[in-house]
Amino acid sequence: PVGIWTTPEMAYFGLSPAQAVKDGRDVVEGVAKYADTLRGHVNRCSIGSLKLVVSEDDGAILGVFIFGDEACELVHYGMELVVGARTVFDVQNTLFAAVTFHECYKNAADDAVAQLAAKSSPAFRRYEAVRM
Fold first, then answer.
1. Which of 4, 9, 68, 109 is the one with CA 20 to 30 A from 35?
2. Quick check: 12 and 66 in contact, CB under 8 A?
3. How confident is the model over 44-91, as pLDDT tens digits?
4. Could you report the per-residue pLDDT of 9-31, keeping only the tens digit for each?
5. If pLDDT is split at 50, 70 and 90, which confidence band does 132 have?
6. The Cα angle at residue 18 between residues 15 and 24, in degrees rounded to 5
7. How far is residue 127's CA from residue 132's CA, in Å, rounded to a whole number?
8. d(CA 97, CA 84)
9. Strand order in the sheet with 61-67
10. Per-residue CA distances from 110 to 3, 10, 30, 53, 117 (Å)
């Protein structure tokens, strides 16, 4: 992973949306704001976001980009998601400890799944078929 220890921090791992498109993949970008998490409320965060780059074909997380407090620590979970070929559906079904910025991963996954559903993407159709 790449981390830049500035204030605020920045970190990323995996493919950017442009790189994924260049590789011939259709993607959506699930975004979460720190301010929308319990930790963000506790810390009164006015800046900070996490973005997941997600394949429309299978829901796989291809990249993670973080801007804000503790980004250089949070990116390691994102790295595991990319390397482990995890999907946004996996993240949606993961329980995160309260009052951590890891809640951003679930919020970004929820955003990505909503976009996949709106597009009736192959990933969402397969996920819905399995759930039924």
1. 4
2. yes
3. 998 999 999 999 999 999 999 999 999 999 999 999 999 999 999 999
4. 999 999 999 999 999 999 999 99
5. low
6. 85
7. 9
8. 21
9. 2-4, 10-14, 61-67, 49-55, 27-33
10. 25, 22, 7, 13, 10
Residue with tokens 């998601």: 81
Residue tagged 């804000």 (tokens): 68
Contact 108, 30 (CB under 8 A): yes
Half-sphere CA count of 52, side-chain side, radius 13 A: 36
Copy the structure tokens of residue 114.
């909503």
Q: DSSP secondary-structure letter at 19? A: H
Residue type for position 51: K
Length of the chain: 132
User: What is the C-alpha to C-alpha distance for residues 29 and 19, in angstroms, rounded to an integer?
Assistant: 13
> Which run of H or of E encompasses 10?
strand 10-14
pLDDT category of residue 95 using cuts at 50, 70 and 90: confident
